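Structure, all two chains, one model.
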Amino acid sequence: MLSVQEATRLLLGALPEPETEEVDLWSAAGCVLAVDVVADSDLPGFRRAAMDGYAVRADDVAAAEGRRPVLLRVIGEAAAGRPSEAVVVPGTAVRISTGAPLPAGADAVVRFEETRASDGRVAVLCPVRPGENVGEADEDVRAGERVLAAGTLLRPPEIGLLAALGWARVPVLRRPVVHLVSTGDELVDVAATPAYGQVRNSTAYALGAAVRQCGGQPVLRQRVPDRLEAIASAVAASLAEEPEVVITTGGASVGEHDLVRLAFDRLGAEHLFWRVAMKPGMNVVAAKRGRTLLVGLSGNPAAALCSFEVIVRPALTALAGAERPLARARVVLDEEVAQIPVRSRFLRVQVYAAGGVLRARPAGSQLPSVLSSLARANAFAVIPPGLRTLPAGTVVEALIFAGSEAGLLSGGGGVS
Amino acid sequence: MLSVQEATRLLLGALPEPETEEVDLWSAAGCVLAVDVVADSDLPGFRRAAMDGYAVRADDVAAAEGRRPVLLRVIGEAAAGRPSEAVVVPGTAVRISTGAPLPAGADAVVRFEETRASDGRVAVLCPVRPGENVGEADEDVRAGERVLAAGTLLRPPEIGLLAALGWARVPVLRRPVVHLVSTGDELVDVAATPAYGQVRNSTAYALGAAVRQCGGQPVLRQRVPDRLEAIASAVAASLAEEPEVVITTGGASVGEHDLVRLAFDRLGAEHLFWRVAMKPGMNVVAAKRGRTLLVGLSGNPAAALCSFEVIVRPALTALAGAERPLARARVVLDEEVAQIPVRSRFLRVQVYAAGGVLRARPAGSQLPSVLSSLARANAFAVIPPGLRTLPAGTVVEALIFAGSEAGLLSGGGGVS
């Protein structure tokens, strides 16, 4: 059976080229830059005071000291946004506040604390070096410099830099569109009351949230009954809108109702893989048609989320601009765990830090249909295939759910 | 001077009660639940087949084995969403697929692989225990159980659970509204071309992105000139809309232009603190008026972001539902770093994993006005106050920027 690594690699190899779009900088946080950003000017663009004080010629005050201050005539005032037009000639100074352009003639700023002002003059109590308390015109960015590279995730500092450079709108990778097609005669809408034998469509909602977490835009499509025709035509309708990904849920098992794979075939999609050596979530089928990735996941919510996190997340985050698989950490098992042959088990666990070491305790039921234990988990412990029972204390790898990394990093990191 | 810890504590102690709102479950990922969720029914709500096969009475097949199969008459078929009305009496079976309700009379499912079907009958090749391959009506959730507690962050599994329980709309904490009031005569809009001595308003954009990262809703307010009246009336206009937080930038230094503190006073706000023992970002002023927190930050973008991340983030994330300060990790300094008296230095660094240990190298200029080095950083290394130069190899604490934790956790965690 195909390994998880191989399945992940096949999906990553089949990614469409991402689309780009222009967004308002104010809403661009979390987006990924689509182009290199080259500065068209220096930043801040002019020499300015880095402190409140007096703009002077350093030569003038070279001999200043507390007992023998140098007296300068104050010929103007400069504030941020309000430059002084005065020219600082020998023997003069301009009162200046932080951020104000350094007046012509001046080459340094003496801080207020090192002066005494009186009646149109200022007494400077200590010397300054040329350039002291002055910010250079290119102290932040030099004109022509590549400030940010295409592919950069826009965090607060990058947003600030783009603002400083005047990029009011910014070309970013479009968040990949992911259609969610739910198959299953048993499904009813979330707002409906299920009749006997029916269940609400929880899997699509859980996957929608997971798609958002990966930087995608989920689109909830109509539910589809368990018939080949219906599934094929629903997927065809999605394909017509050319989303980056179509994810189906249900109908991917090996029984009579293994219809999704047939539907993909009927639509002429290029087969990528079917079934992956993992538990839960073995029944994954993947194909490609045009620029759209087609992925069929289990109808069982925990199984679908497990396959999504392990196999789909790397591809979807890569499409969104930067491959971000779940973080990996080594953890100590609190309880013994049985291996299974051929397939890796992805055990829902609570990972916690204890004495600088990460430990994992099972989070409850491991059934593919059970969500409540997944809601109590913050990681999958990966149990490699085999025939043994791994004793408590065994060190295994865990995949840490998005959002739980910070706490565990603060808790002391991993097990080396 | 007030310590960072004390300033953080004071802000956290002054938080307003969060507002709640109801949102569509489809868009609720990342929100924080405002109420306890108690199940009004079992989940899935009925006994069902966990495998494709035949629903049988376990007693009937107790003696089944490969050489002496038990023959049962097939009296119906059940699929997910299509229950069978047949009653399984001794000697009979119902063909069943995964997720279908277990028919009356049956107490177990024999998997297809362990049967041979022929002409209205099925030969069962091995015994099953009562309950085998059957999912119980309450296997996921029991009616009356508190499934999720108020304050829970809604991740994909929680969204799935809420969907399964029929919560099409869900009460969540409203994302805190944060007004950003920029003061400074030197500021121009991002889309404008600065004249000599002017700069674009990058700080507000960077802070807007940081507010979003913390789960807040940033609102960019009009820029305000450096005059007490103008600042007070801009803050008053914000207060009239009762946001959770108003953040001003600029005008918080100790020069003549220290106007924000005076504006807060004039509005009758309760003073919380002024100036914090940190560099950059010392000039923070905090107050409270009605339910609104007022925070004045530096106009320098890197200084403002540093104060925000260290002091405001814990409060804002707590307001959003779960206090999330930056993750802390111990790192080894690659280069020597000079301490400064009284204040902690927050050094922009690149933290990277090498041999299972986290190391930190300076990310460039440490000037409060420089953003480009912050864009190259993924952490602040915290240099405690003092008079020494810490040699390369010193272990210090680092605050890891949001989004960089996963890579560092995977890289091998911290330094114990």
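The CA atoms of residues 251 and 259 of chain A lie 5 Å apart.
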